[in-house]
Amino acid sequence: MKRSRLLFLFFLLLLTHGAMARRVPLSEKKIIHFGWVAPFTPQEFLDCDLADLDSTCPFDGIGLYACLNLKRGDKVIEYRLPFQVGAPQMLTEDDFKELIPAYLRLQETRLKHNFIRQNSSLFNADWFDEEGWKRTLNNFSMLAWLAKQTKCEGLCFDIEAYPFTGQPFRFRPELGHSFEETAAQVRKRGKEWIQELNRQYPNLTLFTFHWTSQCASQLYAEQPELLNFTPTGLQIAFINGVYDGAPETMKIVDGNETPGYRAENASDYDRILANATLYGDAWIDDANKQKFHKITSTGISLYLDRYAGRDFATDNHTQLLATNIGNCIRYTDEYVWVWCEKGNFWPKICKSELKFWNDQLPHCTDAIEFGRTISLKHIRENASPENLLKNSSLDAAGEGEGHGPGQEPSPLAHWGQWQSTHSPRGTITAENGMVRLVNVTDGSIAQSVKVHQGQQFIAKARCKVEGAPCNPSLGFFFRNSKGTGLWDIQCNIPFTIDLGDGWMGVNVPIIVPSGRDITSLTITVGTNVLKQIEGDKGVLFDDIELHPVVLPWDAK
């Protein structure tokens, strides 16, 4: 009953999340690079060999922050927009002209899905300052114009309250307005802001590192006023203003920065989608909830620097990275974004003291490329011919062995057997290099192998039902270091591949979950019959195999 409730909740989450998300097919999902070590200046793009942008880069796009050289009279001002608090300069199209041919070169590479990146520094902390607001609106408008001119997907807006941005979303009572008055003004500004962005770039994608995913608990969902006097206190008003003015044809991506950075295993990614379902619209005005669900999608983040350190229980950080890139790809609606600070993916272009990422984390680029393509088909295609199961010929010679509590030695060397104590037992016998189960109402043979998290396998077997109808299956489950079965992730797969002459086959991909105490994998083949029949011939099993998947870095 407990498992049934968990399955029901899981499918409910899928249904509700699918209703709100603009989900794309797996093959159309993208991985975007963000960080401070990447090409940014016009010279870096214009002077480089295009092959150098592609050859060491496993991404589909990058976040670009505009590095400008402003000509003001007889002066040239180096102007980096993420650090220009209050937008002191009124920008024009001419200020961005040299960036256009530079950024357009990216369309000749794999980096085609790019975003012009900006934080909240361009906002004036005085939301009632009309002149300041004109400057802010103009400068964001120019960024949207730049994104459209350079075929970027849209803008990346980082709303986080960094101290160097001036924290414009902090309520300032010293400016002479109440919180309620200020929040109403900020909501008005949010509407004007998104309308101007869409005027310059109709139906753009607004990519955010985090958005309403900041609401990740029942407390903040029900009492958002607790945030009023924090550095982010006015963000809820601004976000609602954005939905007041956003057309239903644009996209807003919530990048889930904090939970994605912390995620280590599939359960953590489950929680990201659960929080999106439970709390994603908690801060949204009822009038905008329908629009919110229509245009807002879930992105997933990954903090690459964690994998270059010693922040996980496993020592195999390369394999864990591949696994979690795969998790990100499966769980996101469209975009995965990777934040990187400790290494350099473009060593021939970006002059930096930081090492190439493959020197920071062995086979880093291979892991990202492999992780994005992890699929059941991919696992099947990369299985080794080596069979890890002992006595796969099902020879009766030698002594069987039990593989955990409740199991007993079988007639087959190295194999254990199990039959339920709650129903009549049948017989399990070796027969000409096969094993026959007769009148087994609920039972199997089993063998265990040592494993570690992230490993991938293909399990195979074939069977032939020669007696009463039954339900043969190949199953697998895991045990922890204490020998306890992890029954929440066990699985039994029926034989569905028609091999001819009455034989049926099964081919099962297996991925050892990360972030769990798992030391062994147990493979079972078994069956159950509804009614025991005297003289029944039962079911034959043969060719039971477990093949490891060869990972690219292991092959090298």
Question: What would you note in describing this structure?
Answer:
The protein is an alpha/beta fold and 556 residues long. The chain has two domains: 2-374, Alpha-Beta Barrel (TIM Barrel), CATH 3.20.20; 408-549, Sandwich (Jelly Rolls). The protein is 29% helix and 23% strand. The strands form four sheets. The protein has a nine-stranded parallel sheet. Strands 12-13-16-22-18-19 form a six-stranded antiparallel sheet, with no helix packed on it. A six-stranded antiparallel sheet has the order 14-15-23-17-21-20. Helix 6 (130-149) runs parallel beside helix 7 (179-200), helix 7 (179-200) packs across helix 9 and helix 13 (317-331) runs parallel beside helix 15 (364-373). The chain is elongated, with a radius of gyration of 29 Å. The protein starts with a helix and ends with a helix.
- How far is the first residue's CA from the last residue's CA? 47 Å
The averaged pLDDT comes out at: 90
- Quick one: how many beta strands? 23
User: How many distinct folded domains?
Assistant: 2
Q: Output the radius of gyration.
A: 29 Å
Structural class category: alpha/beta
How is the biggest beta sheet arranged?
A: 9 strands, parallel
Secondary structure: helix percent: 25-40%
Low-pLDDT segments, ≥5 res: 1-21
Would you give the CATH topology of the largest domain? TIM Barrel
